[in-house]
């Protein structure tokens, strides 16, 4: 393929469009020369000043050369075009397209819980979770404050090296810290239950009481060593799982008692479906009738 470079004067006088050529920007070596010059200019700072001088000369020359390739008129080349007929064929077999409804796809769930439902479930579930945690401390350490202080130790650096006897005693700051951490976490997980349970409406007890607690217990087991080494060294995972199951069962039960909020997808259904009437009328409208 031969290229014919056009000078600025030839470009200014060429107004007629030639169908056998395509006008493209002329190739120029100055960007590569500029990159080489800048590389040598920087490399000379750690080697020898002569290399930097050579890089400066190449940089200035490339800047001037590149500038005059663009201004006052950009250089172009005329590339000849070879026309031909290209036959496009496919070896794939065509299949008949299945009929698709013109309506939008259904978005599930059509009903969900409100934000307050998740908050209520998280609060009641957090209260229920205290019972097995306190029972664990009472049976093993003869103190209900062990689990409270152990949770607070995750936020107090000074409690990292404290003894078991210290954690079994009552500390007001530990009670306040553990209450804040437990309340905040319980509300967040309650909101998660409110958003998750409508997605699994068939078996809410199994999902809320066992699947979800075991899922995030496994996630916490793998990450607790980084989040809180104190909790990771002292936590009893069997009782922790029991506490999580108690939270999940109570929280899921409270959330399911709340009234569901209907989404716009539900409100767009026909009246017969929204009213709960078993009808033979199809959901989609038949324009031919």
Which terms would index this structure?
mainly alpha, two-stranded antiparallel sheet, 7% strand
What would you say this structure looks like, in words?
It is built from 12 helices and 5 strands. By secondary structure, the protein is mostly helical. Strands 1-3-2 form a 3-stranded antiparallel beta sheet. Helix 2 (30-43) packs antiparallel against helix 3 (49-70), helix 4 packs across helix 7 (172-196) and helix 8 crosses helix 10 (237-257). Residues 8-16 and 285-289 have low confidence and may be disordered. Residues 1-12 have a biased composition (Polar residues). Residues 1-20 are annotated as: Disordered. Keywords: Membrane, Transmembrane, Transmembrane helix. The chain crosses the membrane at residues 33-58, 117-136, 143-160, 172-193, 205-231, 237-257.
List the helices and strands and how they pair.
Layout: E1 4-6, H1 8-13, E2 21-25, H2 30-43, H3 49-70, E3 76-80, E4 111-113, H4 115-141, H5 146-153, H6 164-167, H7 172-196, H8 204-227, H9 229-234, H10 237-257, E5 260-262, H11 264-267, H12 271-274
Antiparallel strand pairs: 1-3, 2-3, 4-5
Region (Disordered): 1-20
Transmembrane segments: 33-58, 117-136, 143-160, 172-193, 205-231, 237-257
Keywords: Membrane, Transmembrane, Transmembrane helix
Number of helical elements = 12
- Report, as a whole number of angstroms, the end-to-end distance: 65 Å
What structural class should be given to the helix and strand makeup? mainly alpha
User: Which regions are unreliable across 5 or more consecutive residues at pLDDT < 50?
Assistant: 8-16, 285-289
Main beta sheet strand tally, sense and closure: 3 strands, antiparallel
Number of domains as seen in the coordinates: 2
- The geometry reads as flat
Radius of gyration: 37 Å
Name the strands of the widest sheet in spatial order.
1-3-2
Share in helix? 55-70%
Count of DSSP E strands? 5
SS strand fraction: 5-15%
SSE topology string: EHEHHEEHHHHHHHEHH
Q: What is the mean predicted local confidence, pLDDT?
A: 81
